[in-house]
Design goal:
mainly alpha; 71% helix; 0% strand
């Protein structure tokens, strides 16, 4: 049995476990998991530490998703003689593993972010048409401007990805399965946001809202 794909996915998971907020937090001597929502992602970084801190966090989180997808799942896989017909599926699995690492980082007691930033890096690594990312970002911004809810924007954007794939041409079953799995994962990681929205306790980014009460 060839364990090489499993090893590559584990390496991608370890890469994903590197937390941008923890790295940047070392320089400022802060742990944002003890602040705000307690989440180690870009949104909580922005709310508790400001735009520059959040930019550093998001850059690291996006980069590790891209590296897992492009280098570990593709270039490194090719160098260790993974059959060409298996490369694309393995790259998807390595990308997904890096997102899981971000959410459940082995270095930080399995307490990480919600996966959106790292998933963006994976999508960039997919080399889809450039307008794909722009469409998804546009959906996220539109929801944010209409509702002020960052989490809702992320959830609806995650759901929009497999819908976009469905209406696109020449999309493989592997990519569609990946898109559905990502949408389900994003909904799961934002379940606390869904609960707070239903209870009316979710924070809103009111400065960007078009319609304000």
């Amino acid at each position: 049995m060839n364990f090489t794909p499993i090893v590559l996915m584990f390496v991608a998971y370890l890469l994903g476990s590197i937390s941008g907020s923890m790295i940047i937090g070392k320089f400022k001597k802060v742990d944002i998991r003890t602040m705000g929502s307690g989440n180690a992602g870009g949104t909580n970084a922005f709310r508790t530490q400001g735009a520059l801190f959040a930019l550093g966090v998001i850059t690291i989180d996006i980069s590790k998703g891209w590296i897992a997808m492009h280098y570990i799942g593709t270039i490194l896989a090719e160098s260790v003689a993974i059959p060409p017909q298996n490369i694309f599926l393995l790259s998807l699995m390595c990308g997904f593993a890096s997102v899981l690492g971000h959410i459940y980082p082995i270095y930080h007691n399995l307490k990480g972010g919600k996966g959106a930033g790292t998933l963006i890096g994976v999508l960039i690594g997919l080399s889809l048409p450039p307008y794909t990312i722009l469409i998804l970002i546009g959906i996220w911004l539109l929801v944010l401007m209409l509702t002020g809810y960052v989490g809702l924007g992320t959830i609806l954007t995650g759901i929009s990805f497999p819908v976009y794939l469905y209406i696109s041409s020449d999309i493989s079953n592997q990519l569609m399965g990946f898109g559905i799995a990502c949408a389900v994962l994003i909904i799961f990681t934002h379940r606390s946001n869904i609960k707070r929205m239903m209870e009316g306790n979710e924070n809103q980014f009111k400065k960007i809202m078009i319609f304000k009460k």
